[in-house]
Task: structure prediction
Amino acid sequence: MSDSETKPDLLVEGQVPVVRGEPKLDPFDPASLRLSQDYASVVGVKKALLTVPVRKPAKEWWVRTHPDDNYQLSTAVIDLKEEGETYLVAQPLWPALAAESTFSPRAFFLAVNRQQVVFFWPVRLPGSDGKLDDWSRSAMQAAVMARKQWVRVTSNMSLGAYEVSYSTATWDEPEWPTQSMTELLKTAFKDRHIDSFDHPILKRLRGEA
Result:
């Protein structure tokens, strides 16, 4: 068999071999420029977790909570509803703040939605009287359910509680941040931590500022 028969795709123009086959792709064709779906993993890119919101899940979100107890915290906070802000309070201040109307216990669950937004889900805990309203009770049940399955939480004003739906789809398990609970709390509450009676928030509540 001759060389021309064994190499039918090679032509010779002068001294430069030319491969005959599919036409060369235009370098400006979008297909040659488009990022792949797994681009971040291919090039080794990882997003820095600079913000961890403290909030309830949006009504359209499907969410999970971290299954590890180490990523749940029961503590006490100052909750300013009008500003939509929650402040962690250092434990030595708790006894003196027990009568403060904005001071109350909370459980914080590390959570994530389907869009990989990581946040702390605050759920009210029973007060000194041991009572808990239906809103808080149903929110706690939803947060516990979300440890094992994707859930969606919506308000039902007629019911006076949250309705909880769970997904039957075979979605992947969430990708959890690698930071410790301490690091995540520092990120979430970096400007909202009360460790002194001279803190501006406490002064304002006392009418001193």
About this structure: DSSP finds seven helices and ten strands in the chain. Strands lie at 10-13, 16-19, 63-65, 72-80, 85-89, 103-113, 118-124, 151-156, 161-166, 193-194. The mean pLDDT is 86.
